[in-house]
Amino acid sequence: MEKILVIGSAGQIGSELTLALRNVYGEGNVYATDIRDAPKDIKKTGPFQLLDVMDDKRLIHFVIRYKITQIYLLAAVLSGNAERLPLQAWDINMRSLLNILDLAREVGIKKIFWPSSIAVFGLTTPKINTPQLTYTEPNTVYGISKLAGERWCEYYHNKFNLDIRSIRYPGLISYKTEAGGGTTDYAVEIFYDAVRNGKYECFLKPDATLPMMFMPDAIRGTIELMETDALKLTVHSSYNLSGISFNPKELSDEIKKIKPGFEITYKPDFRQKIAESWPQSIDDSSARNDWGWKHEYDLKKMTKIMLKEVTVKQRT
Ligand code: SER
């Protein structure tokens, strides 16, 4: 039986992925952990403990005690926040991964999931339909840490035969946990401000097109990748994954169709430069060929659900 450890279960991905994993593997078999308290439903539906991924001694005790077979490492400092505290962000993003990789080799963990990002790309990368293999010269601390992380994952796979799986997530849009600190997070904030105030001041320019994905697609894609027969996988760094591409203007136009009074203004800050260094759309044919990936949500469908769910959330 699989025993799964989720690190970062209170975060944007973790708070949804933990529940999805519990549906698949059984509530008692998915151990949620974080350095901060988790949402109620995470604590209600299965085990939750406060745990710091940087504390390698407690981590190894935990893994041995609960006979953990799979680890999802979701704790990270995102792009905007990492630029504010570069060395701390590098330390947290890298040391957490290296702790897990080494522990996995020592204890014999069967499978690991670690998220990478479109932030591994940079100004020299082709922007449209960015290929799986291309120039990767990131300019952000977050991107540099993700690129280095990808190389470490492939290294541990080649050298120690560890089964590590990874996705280069596009910007993720979700309503359960408010995102924080990312360049793509305008596309989450905008919904909260639209519902609360009817207007939003965007920190990117109207035409800053970026690859994005609605969280239910990202969660399904992650579990599908983890369930795929290892022999089918050809990418051992991190898979490109594509959902929807849009810019702030297109998103605000879609919101206006449902909330006609909605107003958007633009005040680009340092994150505009980050956005300009990232692709606009992603070629994910490796994911499509190797494990049958296909996204489901488009801009219209996502906007409708986001507005509805954020409105419900504001009322409760
Ligand atoms: N959503 C992330 C960020 O903007 C990209 O992986 O930092």
Distance between the amino and carboxyl termini: 38 Å
**Helix-strand pattern, N to C?**
EHEHEHEHHEEHEEEHEEHEEHEHHH
Query: Any low-confidence stretches, pLDDT <50, length ≥5?
Result: none
Specify the CATH architecture of the largest domain.
3-Layer(aba) Sandwich
- Which range best describes the helical content: under 10%, 10-25%, 25-40%, 40-55%, 55-70% or over 70%? 40-55%
* Main sheet summary: 6 strands, parallel
Mean pLDDT: 96
Q: What shape does the CA trace take?
A: globular
CATH fold node name of the largest domain? Rossmann fold
Q: Tell me, what is the CATH class of the largest domain?
A: Alpha Beta
How many domains in all?
Answer: 2
Structural Rg: 19 Å
Question: Would you kindly provide a written description of the structure presented here, covering whatever features stand out?
Answer:
It is a single chain. This protein has 316 residues and is α/β, with parallel strands linked by helices. The chain has two domains: 4-171 and 213-240, NAD(P)-binding Rossmann-like Domain (Rossmann fold), CATH 3.40.50.720; 176-212 and 244-279 and 297-315, UDP-galactose 4-epimerase, domain 1, CATH 3.90.25.10. It contains twelve helices and 14 strands. The strands form four sheets. It has a six-stranded parallel sheet with strand order 3-2-1-4-5-7, sandwiched between helices. A three-stranded parallel sheet has the order 6-8-12. Strand 1, helix 1 and strand 2 form a beta-alpha-beta unit. Helix 7 packs parallel to helix 9 (248-258) and helix 9 packs across helix 12. The longest helix has 22 residues, at 86-107. The mean pLDDT is 96. The chain binds serine (SER).
